[in-house]
Request: fold
Amino acid sequence: GTGQQTRSRSCNNPEPNYGGSNCTKGMESGQSGKQNCNINPCPVDGGYSEWGEWGTCSKTCGTGQQTRNRSCNNPEPTMEEETVLTWDNEELRNCNTDPCPVNGGYGEWSEWGVCTKEMWRWKSISTPRM
Reply:
């Protein structure tokens, strides 16, 4: 904002002496003066806006992540060299934390079991003829 500054001067260059008059030359500007200073608006550091909506989750199941952001515009910084907030402007959280469905599938075949029916072989015996 706007301020004021003052200044003063003394009648000593040279001091009046030997009947000389007190400083009359330049009296229109007097012994003191004032003027406005810092007439430019004060700089304003930036501030955060409200958080935006959460983004889409990176996974549909099995724990994904999603983010949301906020900007440095509440208020906006008034001068380039003033602080622009760039940290803590993104938030991250887990989402869709339920396990993913697992469809069943067949494993390896086991060894063959014992057969339920045994086969018999008949052997014929021949007798020698006499």
Q: What stands out?
A: Residues 3 and 37 are 5 Å apart (CA to CA). The mean pLDDT is 83. DSSP finds no helices and four strands in the chain.
